[in-house]
Amino acid sequence: MKAVKAMAGRWSAGIWQGALAVLLLAALGAGPADAQDKQVLVLGVDISDSRNFDPARMSDYSSPITNAAVYDRLLNQAPGKYEEVEPSLATEWERLDDGSRIRFKLRDDVKFWDGTPMTAEDVKFSFDRLLNVKDQPAVYASNLAGTEVVDEHTVDLLVKDPNVPIMINLAAPAFAIYSKAMTEANGGVSGPDAETQDTATQWINQNSAGSGPYHMVQWERNAQIVMQKNPYYWGGEVPFERVVIRHIGDSAAQLLALENGDIDAAFNLTTEQLATLEGNEEININSGLSLDYVYMALTTSAELNEGLAKLENRLAFAHSIDYDGIIEHLMGGNAVRPVNFLPIGVGGSTEELTEKIGYREDLDKAKELLEQAGNPDGFAFDLSYANAAIVGTSYQLLAQKIQSDAARVGIQVNLDPIDQVNLRTQYTGGHSQSVITFWNPPSPEPDLWAAASIERVAKRVRWEPSEEIKQTVKAAAAEQDPATRNELYTEYTQMLQDMGTYILLFQPIYRIATRNSIEDFELTAAGWQVEMAKIKPAS
Amino acid sequence: MIVMIVLATLVVFLIATQVPADPILAQLGDMQAADEELVAAYRARWGLDLPIWQQYWIFLSGLVQGDFGVSISSQRPVLADIAQYAPATIELSTVAFLLSVLVGVPLGVLAAVRRDSWIDHLARLLSLIGVSAPTFWLAFIFLALFYGGLQIAPGPGRLDVIYLPPPTVTGLYLVDSALAGQWDVFRNAAAHLVLPSIVLAATTLGLITRTTRAAMLEALHQDYVRVARAKGLKERTIVVRHALRNALIPVVTLGGLAYAVLLSGTVLTETIFSWPGLGRYTFRSAVTLDFPAIMGITFIVAVVYLVINLIVDLSYALLDPRAARK
Q1: Burial code of B194-217, b = ≥16 C-beta within 10 A, e = fewer?
Q2: Distance from CA of B102 to the nearest CA of A (A)
Q3: To the nearest whole angstrom, how far is the Cα of B271 from the nearest Cα of chain A?
Q4: CA-to-CA distance for A350 and A354, rounded, in angstroms?
Q5: Is residue A522 within 8 Å of residue A534, measured between CB atoms?
Q6: Which side of chain A, N or C, has fewer Cβ within a 10 Å radius?
Q7: pLDDT in tens, A343-354
Q8: Average pLDDT of the segment spanning B209-227
């Protein structure tokens, strides 16, 4: 037995030596991250949703961050000014032929990243391809009839209905202008057969074909996107040699990477995580009001729920919710609340208007309404929501808060958490009694929200909107004078409030933490989250 | 074996198609989902408008020709997607597996040979922690401690930002960088593997240690060990050649299964370490009901399990001559 022990002793010594060697090796390689060269901007973002970067096909939340940095559009929108457009590749524009033709003058000093000049042919190619590839973004261009080249630096857009707004959409990522030559050389087709013949997407996904400050050199799915500076950029010297968007899906890992200096910006931190950074001198917290919001939709169908089918009951429920408590406690104060379907910042929607005509917590009024409905003891309904979180707050928590709020007036909310695809199928099909869900606009054009609320979303709650509200929305969309238009939108909003089918809960303020190694980090709600071209190394 | 694979895909297919959710709606934006023409075009493109049996037939006939179909989500061939994500997972799982075997087996042997000594207690403690600590918790604690706190380990991802991946040959960064002679990339890739592979190895390490210990204890009390000792053989020879060889059979069975589990079950570790592997791909495909991708992965996982089982069966013959004779 003694021999065994001796043997084991020698053995274990060997093992520990081995283990030590392994650890040493690991430690040697695993030194702290090398000092960041400030030629490179590194952003930590959850990009797991990105499926492609082709302007004619993309439809995801995170891909516009990259696309806005590698492509320009004819028009642009400055952060916070979502009611107006400003020149970008187009310098001026005018409406001809009763508004059905819009003539754009193009800049003559724009070059794509390969050094070739941008001309009207490229604009035509980009828009034709958008329409003919017939993938998701084509829906935003449904009012576009075609594009005609006038001369090298003049191009006409033909619109089907001059009363349907289009200018703000032209600033959206789907309307990016890219090089005809580069795209065609890599399988791009813009003709009527593009739907089946176009094969450029895989190339565009890795290289991009635009005139923006950077151009893509690599996209490794679920890992990183690498962009290189465009030496021919028309907007002046580009601040970084390279931009790397690093995929970090877990927010806690993002926080660590930011604190360690491995990334310059963390896009997906939760309220609690941001709170731990307050007072940290190396970190800035940049905030910007989004145009996204979380809302509830209540059915009007007696088949689905007899209680909710009664207008007074829906309004009673709307008056039972502690809106301020949701924003203060669940969102840490980092949110605002619009009145109804138009978020604050567009169509005359403001916080003051919410004060005036928004639903407010009023339990007596809620009880009164219940009595009017003939349900003095309340009623019950099912509330469906996804097993997911929004800005770090789970829908579950939100639903529980609403459940306990409504219980105070006798309304019983039964919680029904389901997976996202299931929820989408049920809600879109009009089979949900009520839902809590999220709205993210493709572009800040007010008509996109207003039309949705009385068309496809109205179908989901089985509401048949009146002619009056339909006419109001139509008139607002066609109205050129901003003040009159906003008045019309306010009228429309009041009509929605009277229906009680949609209840707006909050519109989050997005917050992105950056290191003080960079500056001029400006957030935008126009669709691409951050003005990448402006970010500079700290001076 | 082929029957097993077909059965596995059939079961997954039936379950996936019975979920009361529409995979097309998972892919389309809100405005697009209301565009009937676009929805119909998407449905037709993936054959989702066909009867279920026909959809399954299309899948099977494609499979025979090595065609897994096109993913609804990435709109690329499923095989291309899998080929892209698999190397990251294979690299991580293999390192984790080697780690659990190279540490687990010797530790188990030592624990058995020196029963109730400090090393036995240590082995028991380690395997208890490994088996019972939740992976996501362990992953995060490791990251917070070694990356956040002590700053001796690199952060999430396969490489630091300053390195570009080596030219792709196998997709395994360790192999590719060595082939290209890029030793700085090799070192960085190895460093990035340390934390996730330890986390991933924890569970299997625990199991392998415990199984080895139990099997060794049993083997050491067999008559042939007593005979060997009576013959005056060296203790080392007895432990390694007589006891261990016999004790290895259950360990090999377990190890094979453990490797298969590692290859197919790394979602949590991959999420926390932002590892662009198959686990995340599987998870996303499942939550968006990406049928072609789900079916492709099922097929691959079924094949992996069957192949590993085959290897395990064959290795019995090496360890136990009686099995070979049968």
Answers
A1: bbbbbbbbbbbbbbbbbbbbbbbb
A2: 10
A3: 6
A4: 7
A5: yes
A6: C
A7: 999 999 999 999
A8: 85
Identify all chain B residues contacting A422, using CB atoms and an 8 Å cutoff.
19-21
Nearest Cβ partner for B144 among A8, A256, A426? A256
Average pLDDT, chain A: 90
Query: Pick from B103, B156, B281: which is nearest to A257 by CB?
Result: B156
Domain shared by A414 and A326, yes or no: yes
The pTM (predicted TM-score) of the whole model is 0.84
Q: Are residues B106 and A15, on separate chains, in Cβ contact within 8 Å?
A: yes
Q: How many CB pairs under 8 A join A and B?
A: 190
**B326 or A509: which leads in pLDDT:** A509
What was the pLDDT predicted at B265? 65
**3-state DSSP call for residue A211?**
coil
Whether residue A472 sits in one domain with residue A360: yes
Q: What residues 97-156 of chain B have any CB closer than 8 A to a CB of chain A?
A: 103, 106-107, 109-110, 113-114, 119, 140, 143-144, 147-148, 151-156
Q: Are residues A227 and A190 in the same domain?
A: no
Number of structural domains in chain A? 3
**What pLDDT sits at residue A458?**
94
Q: Pick the residue from chain A with its C-alpha nearest to B158.
A: A223
A19: domain range?
2-54+61-68+200-289+510-537
Q: A523 and A503 in one domain? A: no
pLDDT at A73: 96
Q: Is residue A329 domain-shared with residue A238, that is, in the same domain? A: no
What are the C-alpha distances in Å from B243 to residues A11, A340, A446, B122, B234? Answer: 16, 76, 78, 22, 13
Of A359-368, B119-128, B214-223, least confident by mean pLDDT is B214-223
A11/A413 Cα distance (integer angstroms) = 65
Q: Strands, DSSP E only, in A370-433?
A: 380-386, 389-390, 393-394, 412-418
Residue B34 contacts A where some CB pair is shorter than 8 Å: yes
Chain A CB contacts of B25 under 8 Å are 421, 424-425, 428
Provide ipTM, 2 decimals. 0.81
What b-and-e string marks burial along A507-526, b requiring 16 or more CB atoms within 10 Å of the CB?
Answer: bbbbbbbbbeebeebbbbbb
Instruction: Kindly state whether residues A251 and A171 are assigned to the same domain.
Output: no
Which of A196, A219, A235 marks a domain boundary? A196
Residue at a domain's end among A165, A196, A227? A196
Among candidates B27, B32, B156 on the partner chain, residue whose Cβ is nearest the Cβ of A248: B156
Taking only the tens place, the pLDDT of each residue in B268-300 is 888 888 888 888 888 888 888 888 888 888 888
A129 and A211 both lie in a single domain: no
- Together in a domain, A433 and A299: yes
Q: Which pLDDT tens digit goes with each residue over A19-44? A: 444 444 444 444 434 434 589 999 99
